[in-house]
Amino acid sequence: MPLEAVEARRLYRQVADQLRALIDSGEYGVGSRLPTERDLAEQLKVSRPTVREALIALEVEGRVRIRVGSGIYVSEPAALASVLPALAEIEGPFELLRAREFLEGAIAEQAARVATANDIARIDASVEAMATVQHPGEASMIHDRAFHVAVAGCLDNAVLVRVVGELFDQRLNPYFAKLAHYFENPASWNAALAEHRAIRDAIAARDPDAARVAMREHLARSQDRFAQNFGTEASSASRVRARGG
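Below the sequence we write its predicted C-alpha cells.
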C-alpha cells in the first residue's frame, strides 16, 4: 500500500490518517520502525513540520512511540476511542504558532505606539516573574501567558486580549504537551526569556518595527525549537556536532 502525496491545502490530520491506515493495514506492524521524518515528508510531498504534527498526533493516540535517537516505532493500539474525536478537532502546534506569529507581531507593533507607563510596568512584572522560573513547567506557562496578555492589553481591546489568551491556552492541549516533553528544557526556557526581554525593550523604546520583529522572531524560534530532529536523524546530527562538524 504505497504512500500518496497529500495536497498542500490539507493539514496534518490527513497525514496522520494516511499513516494510521498503513499501520492498520499491516504495512507497518507493531514494533516496526517508520521511515524518518525527512523520508515521510518527501514521499507525502508535505513539509517536515506537518509530518512532525502527524507523528505527535499518532503518539498521543498511542499508535506510535517516538524514541529520541532511535526512531519512530509502531505501538499496540491504545484504548482511546472516547478521546479520539476530541483530539481530531485540535489544531496542530505549528498552525497555532504561525497564527500567533502573524497576530501578535501586529499587536506588539501597535503596543510600541500606545503603551502607557502602567502597561510597561505590567510587562516588566511578567518578565521578572519569568526570570524566577528555572525550568519549563506550570509556573513558566502562567508567567509566559501573563506576558503575552499584558502586551495585548496595551491596545485596550478586550477582544484581542481574549484571543491572545485563548490561543496561548492551546499550549495545554495534548499535542503541545508531547512536543514540550521532547524539546523544552532549561536552555530553551532561557532562550525564550531573552526573546521576551527583547520584545519588552522594543515596546518600552517606542520602536514599532523592532517590537513587531522581536515578537515574530520569538514565535518563529518557538517553531524552530519544536521542529528539531528526533529519531535517527537527531542522533546523526549529534554525532556530527560531537566531531566538530
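DSSP finds twelve helices and two strands in the chain.
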